[in-house]
């Protein structure tokens, strides 16, 4: 049994290029870091975006006029494509992975939640890397997560994770716009610190993803308040996950 468990959420902007195409080497680097930690008794639960983008790569245009229906179609086609990427990459490191699809209702107290716990604990006990995704094909309105940041937070709480790392395409929470030369990166934030004032409406967004910095800030504080240290960091840094786990000062850390 692994001594520690962490949840890593990787956003759409981390894994795609400017043409909204999935970048294989970035995913490979992500898996490499997870494999490195695995050998050191730290097991990762991965919350991965990218299914809608992967679906668009396969289908190109979609004739459905309804936005929600298009999302369902792209995600339904893209999920197996993403899992094939991950399956092959983890296999290259001698590891196994499994997909866990969920809607928001699955985290509500009751038998759905108990089933989720049993599934995750079973996978983790076998040394299998769970890859959590929203079940976009059936998840609509009340059963939707606000974004994958919320899903990652709920998974972290469900499995009693030692930390949550949310990877995006900027280095963390700044005191202003990331592109402003006078802005500063906040390396540590307490849950009661008034930092919401630093998040601007014209922030550098999440592109194809649903969650921007406002969402990340809220989720990070909520998760940290449950005594799960939470990080917002740049997923395109070569060893970002390893560096954070090993205690290096990287990204923005949220604590009680």
From TrEMBL:
<dbReference type="InterPro" id="IPR001048">
    <property type="entry name" value="Asp/Glu/Uridylate_kinase"/>
</dbReference>
<comment type="similarity">
    <text>Belongs to the glutamate 5-kinase family.</text>
</comment>
<feature type="binding site">
    <location>
        <position position="9"/>
    </location>
    <ligand>
        <name>ATP</name>
    </ligand>
</feature>
<dbReference type="InterPro" id="IPR041739">
    <property type="entry name" value="G5K_ProB"/>
</dbReference>
<dbReference type="InterPro" id="IPR036393">
    <property type="entry name" value="AceGlu_kinase-like_sf"/>
</dbReference>
<dbReference type="Pfam" id="PF00696">
    <property type="entry name" value="AA_kinase"/>
</dbReference>
<feature type="binding site">
    <location>
        <position position="148"/>
    </location>
    <ligand>
        <name>substrate</name>
    </ligand>
</feature>
<dbReference type="GO" id="GO:0005524">
    <property type="term" value="F:ATP binding"/>
</dbReference>
<protein>
    <recommendedName>
        <fullName>Glutamate 5-kinase</fullName>
        <ecNumber>2.7.2.11</ecNumber>
    </recommendedName>
</protein>
<feature type="binding site">
    <location>
        <position position="136"/>
    </location>
    <ligand>
        <name>substrate</name>
    </ligand>
</feature>
<keyword id="KW-0418">Kinase</keyword>
<keyword id="KW-0067">ATP-binding</keyword>
<dbReference type="InterPro" id="IPR005715">
    <property type="entry name" value="Glu_5kinase/COase_Synthase"/>
</dbReference>
<dbReference type="GO" id="GO:0005829">
    <property type="term" value="C:cytosol"/>
</dbReference>
<keyword id="KW-0963">Cytoplasm</keyword>
<dbReference type="GO" id="GO:0004349">
    <property type="term" value="F:glutamate 5-kinase activity"/>
</dbReference>
<keyword id="KW-0808">Transferase</keyword>
<keyword id="KW-0028">Amino-acid biosynthesis</keyword>
<feature type="binding site">
    <location>
        <position position="49"/>
    </location>
    <ligand>
        <name>substrate</name>
    </ligand>
</feature>
<comment type="pathway">
    <text>Amino-acid biosynthesis; L-proline biosynthesis; L-glutamate 5-semialdehyde from L-glutamate: step 1/2.</text>
</comment>
<feature type="domain" description="Aspartate/glutamate/uridylate kinase">
    <location>
        <begin position="4"/>
        <end position="234"/>
    </location>
</feature>
<keyword id="KW-0641">Proline biosynthesis</keyword>
<feature type="binding site">
    <location>
        <begin position="168"/>
        <end position="169"/>
    </location>
    <ligand>
        <name>ATP</name>
    </ligand>
</feature>
<keyword id="KW-0547">Nucleotide-binding</keyword>
<comment type="function">
    <text>Catalyzes the transfer of a phosphate group to glutamate to form L-glutamate 5-phosphate.</text>
</comment>
<dbReference type="InterPro" id="IPR001057">
    <property type="entry name" value="Glu/AcGlu_kinase"/>
</dbReference>
<dbReference type="GO" id="GO:0055129">
    <property type="term" value="P:L-proline biosynthetic process"/>
</dbReference>
<dbReference type="InterPro" id="IPR011529">
    <property type="entry name" value="Glu_5kinase"/>
</dbReference>
């Amino acid at each position: 049994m692994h001594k520690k468990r962490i949840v890593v959420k990787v956003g759409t902007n981390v894994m795609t290029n400017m043409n909204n195409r999935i970048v294989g080497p970035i995913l490979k680097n992500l898996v490499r870091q997870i494999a490195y930690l695995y050998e050191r008794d730290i097991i990762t639960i991965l919350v991965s975006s990218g299914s809608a983008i992967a679906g668009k790569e396969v289908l190109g245009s979609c004739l459905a006029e309804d936005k929600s229906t298009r999302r369902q179609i792209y995600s339904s086609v893209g999920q197996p494509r993403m899992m094939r990427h991950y399956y092959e990459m983890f296999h290259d490191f001698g590891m196994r992975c499994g997909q866990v699809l969920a809607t928001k209702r699955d985290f509500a107290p009751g038998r759905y939640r108990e089933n989720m716990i049993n599934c995750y604990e079973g996978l983790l006990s076998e040394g299998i890397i769970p890859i959590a995704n929203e079940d976009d094909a059936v998840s609509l309105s009340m059963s939707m997560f606000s974004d994958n940041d919320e899903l990652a937070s709920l998974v972290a709480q469900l499995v009693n994770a030692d930390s949550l790392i949310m990877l995006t395409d900027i280095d963390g929470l700044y005191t202003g716009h990331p592109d402003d030369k006078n802005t500063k990166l906040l390396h540590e934030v307490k849950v009661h610190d008034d930092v919401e004032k630093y998040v601007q409406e014209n922030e550098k967004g999440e592109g194809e993803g649903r969650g921007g910095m406002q969402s990340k800030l809220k989720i990070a504080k909520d998760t940290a308040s449950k005594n799960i240290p939470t990080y917002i960091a740049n997923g395109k840094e070569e060893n970002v996950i390893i560096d954070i786990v090993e205690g290096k000062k990287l990204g923005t850390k949220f604590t009680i």
